Amino acid sequence: MSRKLKTQLQTKLKLNFLILLGLIILLAVTSLCTAINIYIYGNISKPIKAEAAIVLGAEIWDKEPSPVFRERINHAINLYNRGDIKKIIFTGGIGIGKEFSEAEVGKNYAIKHGVAEHNIFIEIKSRTTYQNLENAKQVGLSTFTKLQPPKFLIVSDPLHMKRAVTMAKDLGLDAYPSPTPTTRYRSFQSQLEFLLRETYFYFVYLIFKT
Predict the structure, then answer these.
(1) Which CATH code fits 42-208?
(2) Spatial contact of 19 and 184, defined as CB atoms under 8 Å apart
(3) Which of 90, 153, 162, 166 could form a disulfide with 178 if both were Cys (CB 3.0 to 4.6 A apart)?
(4) From residue 157, how far is each of 46, 87, 116, 189 by CA, in Å?
């Protein structure tokens, strides 16, 4: 190989390396900025009155909500008791090996804690956040037919808010974040894992819209 050809090859390899390095840095910076945005967004909550709260489903333990789901339900109950919402829409289908749907468990828990049954609605087919919101939209719009458009508060964990509200707005809902004031993800490690997971799934949603 001639010296000139070798020099050209080295220059090309160096250029490709710099381009790759630049892309890696760009991806890292974008991911970091997105993660920070997700964290900040989840910790901002303005008092807004709405027609209903849409409670995003989470794991259940037999007939009882898991600690994560219970925090979401309790927050919705507090919103209801304060008069910030008139109705609660619970979402979530039947998981693998489960006998009851997440929405049914949420409804039963809320009734036990004083929410009138006629103010509770459920959808029991969804398995993902997007499906939660898509199905809740149908329930909500059929319930509030005289209000165009009705307002909804999206209830979930703080770090889940950015992705969930983005989805809700993309679905055409007049939606606002209402993160739980408490969360079961308390340790630094669990919060970091949750944040990294949400950052990843937020990018996935932006790309595939599902």
Answers:
(1) 3.40.50.620
(2) no
(3) 153
(4) 15, 20, 24, 16
